[in-house]
Fold XRE family transcriptional regulator.
Amino acid sequence: MAPRSSPTARRRRLATALRQLRETRKLSCAEVGRAVGWSESKVSRIETGRTGIRADDLDLLLRTYEVDEEMRKALHVLRRQASHRGWWSTYGDALPAWFQGYVGLEDGARSVMIYQGQLVPGLMQTDDYATAVMRAHQPSVAADEIERQLAARAARQALLTSSDALEVWTVLDEAVLRRVVGGPETMKPQLQRLREIAGLPNVTLQVLPFAHGAHAAMGTSFIHLKFPEPGDADIVYIEDLTSSQYLEEPEDIERYSLVADHLRASALPPEASTSFIKCIADAMS
């Protein structure tokens, strides 16, 4: 089955290919800029995927790199695919600009490993739980804005059950389950939703209990994304209330991969985790 075609992932792939072409020819961004009449920062923005590239600009770069015709055609195809609008662009009014980049990468990922220490991940939230979180962040948020955000979240959640479903491995701290977001009438259905999602063939869900003590990810939550194309390097994504950070350096990826392994080893097995969630839900008044 062909992987999902995310324009964000395609842009990143094109950016990586252009950077590799430059590095193979042992040229700096400044040297390339001088050769084609651009600023060094423009070359850098293209190579980091922060901006797209026009067809004529791409041709200019490829002539500078003396690329053969076969590769030139392949990179132009990639550029056209990268310029398509993803489904999330429809929700530009509901998704912050800094988060749209992540949604595009998630849409093109093969798998994600999520560790969350505070709240249920967006891919697994019920509408009522999500609404309670939104109102906690923005008490004056309008009802129509909530509806738009819920619609965008529902579109993301379709990744869990699509024909080419995203593979998801999630470790939740016990605090996620104990914090009664929106009251018991919201939290109990949310816990039931987690149990249902845990039953999907592409989802593995584990709980890290308080009783297991200190662990390798204390103080942070993160998402580790892997992509279907061999040339697409992993990304670790971290966010706060108003911004996000992408880690792509090999040493960072290695560190977070090790942390993820420790979390999986420290958490309850999947079957015991769903039983743990049920016990918490049953005890909730």
Residues 88 and 103 are 7 Å apart (CA to CA). The chain is about 50% helix and 10% strand. Residues 7-82 form a domain with the 434 Repressor (Amino-terminal Domain) fold (CATH 1.10.260.40).
